[in-house]
Design a protein that fits this description.
The complex is a heterodimer of chains A (427) and B (314). Chain A is built from 10 helices and 18 strands. The model of chain A has no long low-confidence stretch (mean pLDDT 97). With 427 residues, chain A is of the alpha/beta class. Chain A has a single domain, classed as Metal-dependent hydrolases (TIM Barrel, Alpha-Beta Barrel). In chain A, helix 4 packs across helix 6 and helix 6 (206-223) packs parallel to helix 7. In chain A, strands 1, 2, 3, 4, 5, 16, 17 and 18 form an 8-stranded mixed sheet that branches. Chain B is of the alpha/beta class. In chain B, helix 1 packs across helix 5 (135-149) and helix 1 (12-30) crosses helix 11. The relative contact order of chain B is 0.17. In chain B, the strands form 2 sheets. Chain B has a 5-stranded parallel sheet with strand order 7-6-5-8-9. In chain B, strands 2-1-3-4 form a 4-stranded parallel sheet. The chains are: A alpha/beta (427), B alpha/beta (314).
């Protein structure tokens, strides 16, 4: 089906305004002014064009937890947030630890068709941390899984982690580690520090994260495999990764939007909307994470979009579920905290939101430069746009956002996925 | 002032008002008719989602002496044990017309969740939430200290109080640290490092690992109950070692100043953190603490429920 979209007057990565024409899934013309008849025209004067966003950390909950999110509702939330690709984490019911499950998730994603849904395979059977999952079968399946993670759980057994890193080398896979020493975090509720001590909530020490980061960087470099650190939250973790990269060691790292903005002070309300794994840390950590994302120590923004039904949050803190939704607020938070303040360039924003995640996970059609011949995945953002978050307006099936009522600058006005408009403000 | 969730909810002046009011309530309790009509027609719910004997009966006695209708809602055999959520319990209490809910709960912050006002709008009194706070216990401790060491008047300026034991898991310690400081006393926490909260240096206290060194300077010692399961959680090597280093016995009691008092919020583990000899010594005011608890809770109910008519109805 022929389809043409013209984005008029937008600025690629903040450069001089151009018109960008996309036909049949590809970018076909870029010029100062293009005229003609097109199926859709997006007026983008004053707006910025970025390569379509890619999320490496998305909980879509299907199969098994469709009361929280489905691949369809999660895909719509992703499109609204400017995403053209998401990585569906493996902690579903059943766990995505076999070819059958990842193929099912991939197939449903294709049928929904709003974003590319790349399943993440479990590292261990049932996420239990005892035996390797069917890594090869998942890699060679129709879903072509390349990223593996027990996210939600840490692959804490050092020997098992070593074996997983070694094994995925045969298909150029990457292990995405949820760095959390389980013994140091039994029943932990929030960042261990002065606030947890006052609130009487069991502390979650930074070292529980940092010790696993350090161990796994050493393991990955010993066996020559690819390691990605999910959701780094501490200044100490940042410093370990910075040190490793300075030694020439290979590792990639991710930060979530919420860890770029919120701190453990929010727990003072005892409102579990702020309860998340890993926990919100201190302002010092927030500033270290922002600096690391700018200077390249941290490679990407990953949402850790974690939908939960109302009843999982409408309770006592210690009985509440960990997690918050994030797809629809990721870019506004990045813009407000880093881009609008001049700390991050548009080129760097394109890297952390699209190019780097695509490269880490090997999503070949994604993260390409906006140029003629490239796949038509483009996110249009309005630097002057203002978002007042209203949880009722979220496309996600779950409304567990900690940002309700908060105002952000920088909005996603349109998303083009494979040459099709999947989101446009006003629609 | 609608709720009592934390000692942070009251200022020094109001804390002293509570202590003064408790003294008046004590006089009532000593009189021939132990009852006041103050809360007649008010419904007070004792919501105890965690086992408790003395706090529950203390609040119950206090509410009854003020002529309130008291409903006891305890974990065992109630809808809470059947998995009912705090929200549904709160909405049930609201529907029953509870004017105040006294809540004891194993989750830190449970009282705050009730008091946010979305599920029910009565007054919430925190009777101990997880390892967070236990404000009425701190108030009765301050009352007891003031009665013995300050003649029942004024604040506690110049007094030195030691709180000894499992500070990390103690809601009594958290409330006591806040209140004793507010009232001008200085506080030393005595515990093994494993049973002190992370970044305790941010608290307005001194910390000591040496009980013997602290004893000669203190006016009151508050011993905390040590839970049996702490040993299996690796907090200390053995009960014997804990008793030796951090327990109080007659020998240690003899090291304190003349006139100093020994306190314990109960229930005591005789032979673990406190020896029978110490517990039953003339310096021990443990039994009196229980009696003072009723007076303090009468004062709290009086000041928070009778004293804030409009906010309760709001």
């Amino acid at each position: 089906m022929p389809n043409s979209i013209l984005i008029k007057g937008g600025s690629i990565h903040g450069a001089t305004a151009q018109d960008v024409l996309m036909e049949d899934g590809l970018i076909t013309k870029i010029a100062p002014s293009l005229e003609g008849q097109f199926d859709s025209v997006i007026e983008a004067q004053g707006h910025v064009l970025l390569p379509g966003f890619v999320d490496l950390h998305t909980h879509l909950r299907e199969p098994g937890r469709e009361n929280s999110e489905t691949i369809a509702t999660g895909s719509l939330a992703a499109a609204r947030g400017g995403y053209v690709a998401v990585s569906a984490m493996a902690n579903t019911l059943p766990v995505a630890d076999t070819a059958a499950i990842v193929e099912q998730v991939s197939a449903i994603g294709k049928k929904v068709g709003l974003v590319d849904v790349f399943p993440v395979g479990a590292v261990t059977k049932g996420l239990e941390g005892h035996e390797l999952a069917d890594l090869g079968s998942m890699a060679h399946s129709q879903a072509h899984v390349r990223m593996f993670s027990d996210d939600g759980n840490c692959v804490s057994d050092p020997l098992l982690m070593r074996r997983a890193l070694e094994y995925v080398k045969q298909f150029n896979g990457v292990i995405a580690q949820h760095a959390q020493d389980p013994r140091l975090t039994e029943d932990s509720q929030m960042n261990e520090g002065a606030i947890a001590s006052t609130l009487g909530l069991k502390g979650w020490p930074a070292v529980a994260e940092e010790s696993i980061i350090a161990r796994d960087i050493l393991l990955a470099n010993m066996v020559g495999s690819k390691l990605h650190i999910c959701h780094v939250t501490t200044k100490g973790g940042v410093e370990i990764i910075r040190w490793a990269k300075a030694q020439g060691m290979k590792v990639t790292a991710e930060v979530t939007p919420h860890h770029l903005l919120l701190t453990d002070e929010s727990a003072q309300s005892y409102d579990p909307i702020y309860k998340v794994n890993p926990p919100l840390r201190t302002q010092e950590d927030v500033l270290a994470l922002r600096a690391a994302l700018v200077d390249g120590t941290i490679d990407i923004v990953g949402t850790d979009h974690a939908p939960h039904p109302v009843e999982s949050k409408e309770c006592e803190w210690q009985n509440a579920a960990f997690g918050m939704v994030g797809l629809e607020t990721a870019f506004p938070i990045l813009f407000t905290t880093l881009i609008s303040t001049g700390l991050m360039s548009w080129d760097r924003a394109a890297q952390v939101m699209s190019q780097n995640p695509a490269a880490i996970a090997g999503y070949a059609s994604h993260g390409q430069k906006i140029e003629v011949g490239a796949p038509a995945h483009i996110t249009v953002v309005d630097p002057k746009g203002v978002l007042v978050v209203d949880r009722a307006q979220l496309a996600s099936k779950s409304k567990n956002t900690p940002f309700h009522g908060m105002e952000f600058q920088g909005t996603v006005v349109a998303t083009v996925f494979n040459g099709r408009l999947t989101h446009k403000v006003g629609n | 002032m609608k709720h009592l969730l934390s000692i942070n909810d009251i200022d020094k002046e109001f804390a002293l008002t509570i202590l003064d009011t408790a003294a008046e309530m004590a006089r009532v309790s000593e009189g021939p008719v132990k009852k006041l009509p103050t809360l007649r027609g008010k419904t007070v719910v004792n919501l105890f989602a965690e086992d408790s004997t003395r706090t529950r009966i203390s609040f119950e006695a206090a509410a009854k002496r003020l002529s309130a209708d008291v409903i006891n809602f305890t974990a065992k055999g109630s809808s809470i044990s059947k998995g009912e959520s705090l929200k549904d319990t709160a909405q049930t209490l609201q529907a029953l017309g509870a004017d105040a809910v006294i809540i004891r709960h194993p989750a830190s912050g449970a009282a705050h969740r009730l008091a946010q006002g979305k599920w029910m709008n009565g007054t919430v009194i925190n009777a101990g939430d997880g390892t967070h706070e236990h404000p009425s216990q701190a108030l009765l401790d301050a009352y007891t200290i003031r009665k013995h060491l300050r003649g029942g008047k004024g604040d506690l300026t110049g007094l030195h109080i030691a709180i000894v034991g499992d500070i990390l898991h103690s809601r009594v310690a958290r409330s006591n640290v806040l209140l004793l400081n507010k009232l001008g006393a200085s506080v030393t926490l005595v515990a093994p490092p494993t049973l002190l909260p992370h970044q305790v240096e941010a608290w307005p206290v001194k910390v000591s690992y040496n009980f013997n060194a602290v004893l000669p300077t203190v006016d009151a010692v508050i011993m905390l109950r040590i839970q049996q399961e702490r040993m299996s959680d690796l907090y200390f090597p053995s009960q014997r070692e804990y008793s030796t280093l951090f327990g109080i016995d007659a020998e240690r009691l003899a090291m304190t100043k003349q006139g100093s008092i020994l306190m314990h919020p109960g229930p005591m583990n005789r032979g673990l953190e406190i020896s029978a000899e110490a517990a039953d010594s003339p310096q021990s005011v443990v039994v009196e603490q229980v009696a003072n608890g009723v007076s303090i809770r009468m004062a709290i109910l009086y000041l928070f429920i009778a004293g804030s008519q409009e906010s309760v109805n709001a």
